[in-house]
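for the writeup, i need someone to sanity check this before i put it in the appendix. the sequnce is what the collaborator sent (i think, or maybe the updated version? ugh). structure was predicted straight from it, no edits. if anything looks off just tell me and ill rerun, i have time this weekend
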Amino acid sequence: MAVIVRLKGPGGVDQLELASADLPPPGRSEIRLRQTAIGVNSIDIYQRKGLYALPPERIPGVEAVGVIAALGPDVTGLEVGDRIAYAGAPVGAYASERNLPAWRCVKLPAGLPDEAVAAAFVKGITADMLLNRVFPVGVGTTILVHSAAGGLGQLLTRWACAAGASVIGTVGSPDKAETARAAGASHVIVGRDADFAAAIADVTAGRGVDVAYDGVGGRTLQKTLGCVRPFGLVASIGQSAGPIPAVDIHDLGPRRSLMLARPSVMAHMNDSEAYRGSAERVLAAMTDGVLQVSGTAYSLRDAARAQADLEAGRTTGALYLRP
């Protein structure tokens, strides 16, 4: 009998309930996973609110770490007892045990703790997608990272700095500014109402950044467009402050000559080759110490509190659930 967190219906955290479920044996090309740590991500909140549809089981969550408990027919390359991580569809990670496709399983190096991987796997894959696939970042690149003290923000900052880029971060408080600086940000803009566009113009001598990552949405996205150099790119990757507003094509060019991307990490992870490549690079970067992110633990039964804290900006770094 698996313990699960089920969504009663779209809405607030009060719609999340603890329940139990009988699991069938793993089907063809599936494994049964006994989960040890479950990542909490902004996409889980979007699922809860109904922005992204959930499957009929109504269990949110897109990543976890665990130990294989059983193998279905036709599974090769994996064994009972293997420690693995996974990310992406099918949704349903908020559970003590689950069945999932064997091809999603990525074996873990012995030296990486379950909690560290669960706190960083999807966010690391997202960072890899953004820094390599969406806009190649390297020596001489200047980037803007909103919420630079958050789980994804820290990983983007650390990995971009390791590649030779310069990072300008925005954060909501002085404490979070210290976290962003510790991750490698060379300039940090503090305050939710700060005029970050003016600050970036000052830091870059009016040039603007090469690429900006905006997971805030709402009114912030329009301001972010004003931070990027001509022929640079804005990647809209979330909406923690509200829905993504309509963007007039004239806001992008021809005067500004900007590129606007709306990349989906779920679409990236549905490409098996891209998924495996990103996963391998993330685990290698974690093993080498390039990617480090602090994680805050919650019990699975406290999933609602974890989401509420993440949504309200009361956390620094990544969150994960212990079944």
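Residues 167 and 305 are 32 Å apart (CA to CA). The chain has nine helices and 15 strands.
thx in advance!!
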